[in-house]
Amino acid sequence: MYKNGTKCGLISKLYIVLLLTALIGNASVLAAEASDPVGPLPQYDYIEPFSEGLAAARENNRWGFVNEFGEVAIPFVYSEVSAFSEGLAVVRVEGRYGYMDQNGDIVIEPRFEQAGPFREGRAVVRVDGKYGAIDRGGNLAVAAEYDEMQPFNEGFAVVCKGGYYNYVNRNGDRLLATARLTDAYPFSSGLARVRDYYGSWYYINSSGYFAFRPAADWADTFIDGYSIVTTGYGSYLIDSKGVRVSGTFEIMERADEAGYFIIYSNGRYGYYDTFKRTAVMSYQYQRILPPSEGLSLAVKDGLYGFVDTNLRTVIPFNYSYAGKFEDGLSIVMKNGKYGYINTKGEEVIPCIYEEAEPFNEGLAVVRVDRNYGCIDKAGTFVIPDEFGYIQGFENGVSIAKLSGRYVVLRNPIRYESFAEAVPSGAKIKVDGEPADIEAYVIEGHNYIQIKDLAYVLRGSCKKFDFEYRADADMLILYNNKVYVPGGSEQIKSRYAKPRAALCEEITIGTAYGGKVRALSYIIAGGRYFKLRDIAALVDFSVEWNADDGEIVITTAKPYGNDTAR
User: Fold this and answer.
1) Are strands 218-219 and 226-231 parallel, antiparallel or unpaired?
2) With 134 labelled, which of 21, 181, 270, 296 sits at a CA distance of 20 to 30 A?
3) Tens place of pLDDT per residue across the chain (565 aa)
4) Is the pTM of this model over 0.85?
5) How is residue 363 annotated by DSSP?
6) Are 400 and 372 in contact (CB under 8 A)?
7) Cα-flanking dihedrals φ and ψ of residue 200, to 5°?
8) How far is Cα 280 from Cα 8, in angstroms, rounded to an integer?
9) Parallel, antiparallel, or unpaired: how do β-strands 474-479 and 464-469 relate?
10) Does residue 300 sit in helix, strand or coil?
11) Contacts of 32 (CB under 8 A, 6+ apart)
């Protein structure tokens, strides 16, 4: 399709239908009308949610994996599997746990009593009743000597030994030389909350030093730079320096929207806005949610309506239920049935459904009688109401239940946004050294994950950091700033087959003002960018060495008429 004059995705509906019509292993296939945009659907006993482009599925009490087209990617031969994480999935063989890659090859032999998902390049395992962590080669990076161990987060994992807690880094080094902590939580925003032997809560930093102790009976984990702390008088917010940034409220809890908190005090309901450092409260409402698409959902005398930031009524309180605005529409309930209104309060889809979900990717799951289907914003069924269950779409894919069997659905209104991504066979060199970067070829161009490129360039003259702002649909590059690794860089899935790639147009800009509109692709849950687009903004050379089949990146050479695609 075309968005703002830019071509976005090239796989035709016919090609996708042909892919879906292939007979798959021992899975049965549902016949469909030729006009059905979904096409014939391979069916299975059960399908888990997708992770990294594959979903664990069960058939005849054995587990395997299916891809976004519903095709069998890894045969149904295992008694137990987990979702893929950082390119590897836990698999159980003869009572022991190991790991396989996305081609179904066992890459870490099943020898562990328990095994968890990989996080930041490490996975927690149990050996002889004790917990440690392995690297991607299956080697113990953290000795198996702990009674408890949590997954890594921000470079550290919580461990417990002899009833006391500590932290270890990815090499197994303890953060605290001596620790008499009776409770400890993962690092978040560079801080971790802990409780000492005397029952006091405080925060430590990633160097293991005391950061601050809030005057509180209880302290929450930092998220987006703020934490809720609670005393006998109520709850309030502190920032990452321990500075109090709000008043005290009887009730305070996080809202779905980042930067907002739901509050209640002295008979008044409302929300706290960390951006403006203000509380919005009123006696006349039983609940007020933070703004979503410019309007706040509120409850008055048991009925739902919407108000603006000054608490003036915009949409009258006429509904027995309403949801916040998402994708331009809000679910409302009237006379026991659900429908949708726009931000003007107009009922654009009548209240005729027994159940309704928010719009996502242009579709909403609704129930008519006992069956589920998906409607577009005109209220037209684009996926018929023939299913016993439909999961919300994510990256163009959903899981549904049909006649007691599970199927993979593709978003029919986004078919033309899909392209085929072929694993690149080219080697990549950066300043003469090999770089282990996973790349896909789409229409002859190489696409990579931005974190991998930032990682390999972090010691060069063209180092950069980045920030993805989902609300603005924008990637911002910070030139000459060192990227801080998160532990999940340079991880290859080893998946050798083509993948479905969901095209999304995005703005790529620099902190100094330069910006371009470019295509990005969602592949196996990760966002990929054209290498040449990033090279142009960061200003390094990308060339193609046909003799050796190499993509050559030279950071000392400016971007110009390079030959690599």
Assistant:
1) antiparallel
2) 181
3) 222 333 343 333 322 333 333 323 333 343 333 234 445 689 999 999 999 999 999 999 999 999 988 999 999 999 999 999 999 999 999 999 999 999 999 999 999 999 999 999 999 999 999 999 999 999 999 999 999 999 999 999 999 999 999 999 999 999 998 778 999 999 999 999 999 988 889 999 999 999 999 888 888 999 989 999 999 999 999 999 999 999 999 999 999 888 999 999 999 999 999 999 999 999 999 999 999 999 999 999 999 999 998 999 999 999 999 999 998 999 999 999 999 999 999 999 999 999 999 999 899 999 999 999 999 999 999 999 999 999 989 888 999 999 999 999 988 877 667 788 999 888 899 999 998 888 999 998 999 999 999 999 999 999 999 988 876 778 899 999 999 887 778 776 667 778 888 888 889 988 777 788 888 998 888 899 999 999 999 999 999 888 888 999 999 999 986 555 5
4) no
5) B
6) yes
7) -90, 140
8) 42
9) antiparallel
10) strand
11) 38, 39, 40, 41
- Amino acid identity for residue 119 in this structure: R
Q: If you search the block for the tokens 């690599």, which residue do you land on?
A: 564
Amino acid at 43: Q
Beta bridge partners of 58: 46, 63
